[in-house]
Design brief:
Blueprint lengths: L5 E5 L6 E4 L6 E4 L32 H17 L3 H4 L4 E5 L3
Antiparallel strand pairs: 1-4, 2-3
Length: 98
Amino acid sequence: MTIERRLIVGLGDITAVVFECVHCGVRVAINPDDLGTLAGKCPRCSYTWGLVEPVSNVPPTNLSRSFISDFTQALMKIRRLDPQTVGFRLLLEFKEPE
């Protein structure tokens, strides 16, 4: 017999989006509604994160950085949607920590 447990949360339940610098390891937690204030570099070591460059200006090897910027912008907009207006709630499913 298999028992499975999951944690399901709505986008409104997200209290922070955490960015961890791959260069120095510092973590920056930002309220999802304030993601537009995220700087394009690490606050500790100034390593460039590339979050503010549009796709047209990003070399093909760095396209994923632009997509991260798109994701953060979309997350802010989606959180402002009224479920009654769009007809559904968008939820995120996470595996429960073991």
